[in-house]
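FAQ: What does a multi-protein file look like?

Like this. Sequence, then tokens, then the next protein.
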Amino acid sequence: METELIKLIQENGYFSVGKTEEIVKQEFFIPNLTNIVKKVIVNCVPCILANKKTGKKEGFLNHISKESIPLSTNHVDSIGPLPSTNKSYQHIFNVVDAFTKFTWLYSVKTVSAESALERLKQQQKTFGNPIRIISGRGSAFTSKLFNEYFDEENIQHLQITTGVPRGNGQVERIHRSFDSSSHQAIIRQLDEIVQIRRQITENTK
């Protein structure tokens, strides 16, 4: 009978536990009232639907606008660890131009901020700085050193939402295109290319 009474009161307004208790106590004395009211409200479908969420409202994911200009927006990420080469390269730092989808692969020994910045500076010497760089939230990309460099070079740094890898989908597609057997061969070829480039540079000084 107590349960039916509380249900009847709830049907008139879908009140909170405290408010419902207050209304009941005006006319009745029911032992263990709080627990009975809570049980009724927990199982009351209209009450659940009427109860609005409190706190900060969820917003929409921000869409990252991109210029229709080559080399204005770059996506960056790292692949690895991979089987080590003779020179201890175990990772690939990749850069993808958002507009042309042109991809650069750089062999690196670690995924540190220093390694990433070394390759970005190498990229800068040939192509200049992009307007923005989009990255994940790995320790290298969230480091103070990494973000100080962007501030100095006036590059906008955008980081994808945690758990939403498609936010950096340009490089994620590159990752999927590699199979495990090709990783080491790619790194070795990159290592050879770096050595050839150094020799050409030295010979033309």
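And here is the next protein:
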Amino acid sequence: MEGFLFFAFLVFVVITLRAMLRLCSEWERKVVLRLGRFAGVRGPGIFILIPYLETTPATVDMRTVTSNVTAEQTLTRDNVPVNVDTVIYWRVVDPKLAVLEVSDYTAAVLGVSQTALRDIIGRSDLSQVLSDRAGLDAQMTKTLDEQTEPWGVKVLSVQMRDIKIPDMLQDAMSRVAQADREGEARMVLGQSELTIAQRFADAGKIYDANPMALHLRGMNMLYEVMKSGGTSTVIVPSNAVQSMSFGGVSGLTALAKEAERSVGEHQ
């Protein structure tokens, strides 16, 4: 009989010790209730729990959580339906609030995230949604952080990963962008032509003030033409020859001979 009692007592001690000693991982925290009231947060490592008086109703993961939130067919401020896929990075910073203030903090975070995403899209134009993702991400991060703070949750960042617009609108925007690029190209071409015309006008003024420079330029052009060897006959306007002095004509003859010699050497 005594042996049986001792064995029963030993079993009771083992069960009690197992009930008292609890283990918590490095990234976990356990909320402890004593007779139904909050008694503290335990972890990480081994901690003691008073059997039958204390319970651990929830284990909170303190690591960063990644959640996907999607807003489908949400109207922008200019009434354009868009589908937005967003990634939210958040973590629990106060296990007590996360367990005592909300029944399911994960579902609560996802719920307010989707509401905030739709609200921000509804207050923004399509152009802003497409071009200012960083600004909208920062605005949504601030809004969610303020809303989840009473639950012991910290929203680290929000990133809009994908934005889809209707195909017809996408084609129209593509045509508008192409028209804008063509307009810019025409403006650049027109500016280039204006610059070239101005350079020609400046050159004309210089040649008008110095006829000899014009003659030298003409002789150089003739030399280049004859040097190329592409033709054996070069037609020079009579007024150009008449405007040249004897020295100019002699120079032209010399240029022709030099060109013939250069062509002969290349051949």
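Q: Is there any per-entry metadata?
A: Some entries carry free-text notes. For the entry above: The first helix runs from residue 2 to 20.
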